[in-house]
Amino acid sequence: MEPVRLPESDLESIEAKVRKLLDQSEQQARQLDSLSSAPAPSPFAAYGMPGFAGMPLPPAPPEPRPILELDGEEYEDELDALTDWVDDFLLRVYGSEVTTAAPWCEQWQEHEDVVAWLHALWLAYQQHKDPEAGLAGLFVWHRDFLTHAMAAVRAPGGPLSACMTDPDRPAHRLLPGPKPSSRSSREPEEDGRPGQAA
Length: 198
Hints:
mainly alpha; rod-shaped
């Protein structure tokens, strides 16, 4: 086979195209290197504009805590907000008739276990009504949270069973809970460990 001879003008054109491709490849490599390295400080950082490179975003809201872990004013504020939700939404929509099978207490805020149940239900409601929960969010809340919580709180033998079982006869009574376990009421022995003989 005979070698192919190209005119010199064609060779120069091909050589120029190859040089151009090599230059472009080098430029892209530099861009990739700069993108993979740490970002340069933003020129907007000095102006305190959040969201721009180099500026911290505002702190995230605090994580919700169970209401029984709160104290003082923090507890009272949370209980007030919970009471508004229970009175204005939960009971209005889901507060079925008060009977011996479904007791209620107008002073439910004094029943710690009921407060804990309803607070957990309220937190779950807030999470599942959020758009991020998707279209089925509230269905999941009804199925997995509402039905179970209301059944536990309003059970015939539940925490409100000594309270109102007829709307015409309001009642409120706190039932005594179990005494502390015998292990927690023992005095420490000489070696400092409770219930152990020296």
